[in-house]
Amino acid sequence: MSAVLVIEDDDRIRLSLVMALEDEGYTVSGAANAEEGLAAQRSRPADTILVDLMLPGIDGFECIRQIRRTDDAPIVVISARDDTHDIVAALEAGADDYLVKPVAVKELTARLRALRRRARAIGPETVQVLRFGDLEVEPEAGEVRLHGTPVQVTRTEFQLLCELAEHAGKVLSRQQLLQRVWQYDGGDERLVDVHVGRLRQKIEDDPSAPKHLVTIRGLGYKLHR
């Protein structure tokens, strides 16, 4: 049974999320602020974390950053803020997905199921090292190296890189990547763009002029051999 932590300061919303997810079969705990949530995740790690952005004290962005320092559990932002800047900032802080309130329970649970499926299936079953010049990707071991030096990537970044590596030289559209990496049938393409940008910061010598992960304007992204 999957465990979910809900970090939400609005008592009514937090309780409704806890009850709705429990009805769907999840084990759910709640926290009214970031401090409580961080402590709860350290003592009883949840499989997935829901975070509101407008938290008292430590806000949601910093909460996500602190979780990401030691924990790669999938994080879903649930917020009333729908500005593109906020969405991008949350994803750059380390969130895996972003839903705008009010959230339909069926959509939320569908996203949670997709996140758990991704967590159980990283990379192909065969041992292999995929090489792209000075970039190496080892799917089964979960390793990425640039110039022989290990690169630290998040779970989502790794899955995105593996998908592109498995189809090296081919253009994958944003919708294809949403379906294959996030397992979403449709969705916000900004998820892909932000994670590509974060990945470039780690695997490119010059992220402003990428030589590995390139954009094919109007079509999508491609990983050069």
From TrEMBL:
Residues 127-225 bind DNA. GO terms for molecular function: phosphorelay response regulator activity; transcription cis-regulatory region binding. The keyword Protein transport does not apply. Pfam families: Response_reg (PF00072), Trans_reg_C (PF00486). The gene is regX_2. This is DNA-binding response regulator. The modification 4-aspartylphosphate is found at residue 52. The keyword Phosphoprotein applies. GO terms for biological process: regulation of DNA-templated transcription. Residues 127-225 form the OmpR/PhoB-type domain. PANTHER family: DNA-BINDING DUAL MASTER TRANSCRIPTIONAL REGULATOR RPAA, REGULATOR OF RPOS. One of its GO terms (cellular component) is protein-DNA complex. It comes from Actinoplanes auranticolor.
